[in-house]
Amino acid sequence: MARINLKDAAVFAQHSYKPQNFTSPRIIDSLDKDDVQAHLTENGLLLLPGSNSVLDYLHYNLRVFQVGNKRYRLASSDTEHGASGTVWHQGFLVYSRKIFDWLGQRRPEIIIGHSLGAAAVQILSKSYNVPGIGFAAPRPKKGPGRVQFDDKCLSICRVDDTVCGLPPNFNHMGDARFLEPKANNWGLDHSMKNYRAILEENNGPDAVP
């Protein structure tokens, strides 16, 4: 099974906002349509950027709310069943489907994302039954129970990141690891720069399946 160091995954997630920074592995295809962004590398790494600012998220500038000219809300009533029957937040599911359709017959080996991208990581990790790592992950799944293929998905969250508690009445897919910073900056530490910093100061396993 593919494995990746969490600190390396965080570097990939941060660089996904500026794909020109990638020299290895080489990006072979990118999606930028209907406010959906994704990058696929030559070794099957699927990178999903989101929003580096919690203020963008809270002000509804996060792209998921304007997918294909349709606006989505962070409401507990806005849900839809996926192909497996799992109930997801509708906006996150629509976003993930656009990435799924873009990939076509291609199958990622590992999926890494941040913020909105981390919401899509949780859905697509289940869709492909492949490892997924999401940083600053919102909660896309309706219902608290475990579902099939959620054992390969990990969400890395800061306890001082408001986005990790949104939407209300939803849950993370798979396992969510909440990291406590030495200095709490409640509600504002959402950027990948802050997630890379907390990985440096926290001890614990640094690789996941």
From TrEMBL:
Gene3D superfamilies: alpha/beta hydrolase. It comes from the Bacteria. This is Fungal lipase-like domain-containing protein. InterPro entries: AB_hydrolase_fold. The lineage of its organism: Bacteria, Pseudomonadati, Pseudomonadota, Alphaproteobacteria, Rhodobacterales. It comes from Roseovarius litorisediminis.
